[in-house]
Design goal:
two-stranded antiparallel sheet, elongated, mainly alpha, 65% helix
């Protein structure tokens, strides 16, 4: 239906009727919700659950509440949301960096959700925080051995890093032993050098490891343990030592003869 408005215009002294069309009022456009950009707000991975919020509130009010921290970590592990896992574990480990077991839990979650590279970074941060932890280095070694299976350089590097960091620790014998056993499959020459380092440390079960070394020496051919350069060096050292002993013996004999002569002359005087 069209509506019209009458307008009177005075033109040349006469009335004139003009019809004017009134615009029809248009409806507003409907906003389609699907067109809204989801990036404007936090994603579902970033929003904590009600249970997580409860534990966050507890640890924020009292950061020394260790029990609430452990419950929070259990909850975020169960829910499996990456952002919440990263936030909870990084916050906890800043306060309690010596809890090596939680470093491993964090690395396991990163491996599961993200990648081996992400887990590697967590382990790297862990051994920087507590370089003397034998257990943490053991976890790190197992992770690298599984991830880099067959890559001798990578595996040897992580073993070497471990013994350099905590090889003097009394309980480090299990790392040394694992390193030796792994090298036995690759290079016996390196095994001998490792035993020299290993047995020079004050470690637990020292006699047991020394007996293992003697057994290995007995059943391993010399040519597999040392190079020709090593043999030449040993012969040179042996000759030098034999010459030193010969000179000392001659000096001792001359001194004894001189003493005997002096003793024989005393009665005559």
């Amino acid at each position: 239906k069209q509506w019209y408005q009458r307008r009177v215009a005075i033109t040349a002294g006469e009335d004139e009727v003009v019809e004017v069309k009134v615009p029809v009022k248009q409806k507003p456009e409907m906003i389609v919700l699907d067109d809204i950009n989801d990036d404007d707000g936090p994603g579902p991975d970033e929003v904590p659950t009600a249970e997580e919020r409860g534990f966050w509130k507890a640890v924020e009010e009292n950061p020394n509440d260790f029990a609430s921290w452990t419950y929070l970590l259990q909850v975020v592990e169960k829910n499996g949301k990456l952002k919440q896992i990263q936030k909870a574990f990084s916050s906890f480990l800043q306060l309690y960096p010596y809890c090596y077991g939680y470093w491993k839990k964090y690395a396991d979650q990163m491996k599961k959700i993200v990648s081996n590279e992400a887990a590697f970074q967590v382990y790297n941060d862990a051994v920087v925080a507590i370089p003397l932890s034998v257990d943490l280095w053991t976890y790190f070694i197992h992770f690298i051995a599984e991830w880099k299976d067959g890559d001798e350089n990578e595996i040897r590097t992580i073993y070497q890093r471990a013994v350099e960091a905590c090889g003097q620790d009394y309980r480090s014998d299990k790392i040394w032993e694992a390193y030796v056993e792994w090298e036995k499959q690759t290079d016996n020459y390196r095994v001998l050098k490792l035993y020299r380092q290993f047995l020079g440390c004050v470690i637990q079960r020292h006699q047991y490891h020394f007996d293992k070394f003697r057994e290995w020496i007995f059943f391993t051919p010399v040519k597999d343990m040392v190079t020709m350069e090593d043999i030449k060096e040993l012969l040179t050292r042996h000759k030098a030592e034999a010459e030193r002993r010969r000179i000392e013996t001659e000096k001792k004999i001359k001194k004894e003869k001189s003493t005997d002569c002096d003793s024989a002359l005393i009665p005559l005087l």
